[in-house]
Fold:
Amino acid sequence: MDATIALHENGLGKLLGRSPAMKQLFGLIERVAPTQATVMIMGDSGVGKELVAECLHALSRRARGPLVAINCGSIPASLIEAELFGHEKGSFTGATRSHAGVFERATGGTLFLDEVTEMPLDMQTRLLRVLETGRFYRIGGTQEIHTDVRVIAATNRNITEAVANKRLREDLMYRLAVFPLHVPPLRERTGDVPLLADAFLRALNRASGTNKRFSPHFIATLERCPWSGNVRELKNTIERSFILADDVLDADLPISLPVQAPEPVEPLRPAGVHVPLGSRLDEAERSLIEGTLEYCHGDKRRAAAVLGCSLKTLYNKLNSYASRHVAKPRSDAPCSHATPTTSMM
Ligand SMILES: Nc1ncnc2c1ncn2[C@@H]1O[C@H](COP(=O)(O)OP(=O)(O)OP(=O)(O)O)[C@@H](O)[C@H]1O
Ligand SMILES: [Mg+2]
Structure:
């Protein structure tokens, strides 16, 4: 067992999180890590599946052995068999030397099969057989090799759907998912965002010898982002903002935040703007834009998200008002006495 990996107040080893969902995951990782069970890690892209695999290995009895990872989605189908099981010299054109596959290289340790649902089906059949018998041959080899690896697999697909769509063999699914672990998307644990953001900023400051910091507004904005790219997207956003900032990372920095989904924004029910009938369309638009901006406490990015336009469009509109291209809406419109008004609520 790796003594450097332990549960601490901010997470488990390098896997950070204080949300109930992550705490539950840490509990499951600690339980299954020391066993020989095959684990299937599931979760959207960028949620931290590879980090979970590293934790499982580090907390296992095989921690002193190798952790060998293979991305089944990025290896051409023609090469995957040799990558998994190795080959003997001369076993196919171009095999000028014999080569140990990942099953051999991971001996005594853990084999991480990333994106396992992208493996060709015929190779899945071979993989299943090896998992069941614990034995295989190198391509062109005559000597049977016994495996001594613990297998961990990962996918960002829904495995039941992958089986239904014939991407994953059902028997392999059962064999791999002896112990399934689901890593929740970041949008379901936004409470972890400040902790993660802080850790990423500290690492960047350490690496570049700086002391940059977040504005409170920046952190509040981060918590409202949808993070469809999960922790990876958050990490990249912090890095981008870090590069752009002199001392303070702020939400107003150009291109520093991903587009926010309008959903987390509170509905505009209680507030509204009144546009008297008789107003021109550009006047009505100005009212709505200025009213929304006020409602969003001057946060232009958020206002743009609410209005459903790009930040650039919002800036262009505001600049045009500043240069008086568009008349300010008239609250004393000519037909205002006992006049019907349209309400934009
Ligand atoms: N809980 C976490 N604490 C700290 N860093 C994290 C956490 N989760 C993810 N990361 C970081 O986010 C990035 C993406 O994580 P990782 O590669 O493990 O995701 P993944 O689920 O394997 O992604 P993919 O589906 O694209 O393979 C990495 O830089 C990782 O270190
Ligand atoms: Mg990964």
Summary: The chain has three domains: 7-184, 187-249, 273-344. The pocket of adenosine-5'-triphosphate (ligand 1) is lined by residues 14-17, 43, 45-51, 156, 196, 231-232, 235 (CB under 6 Å).
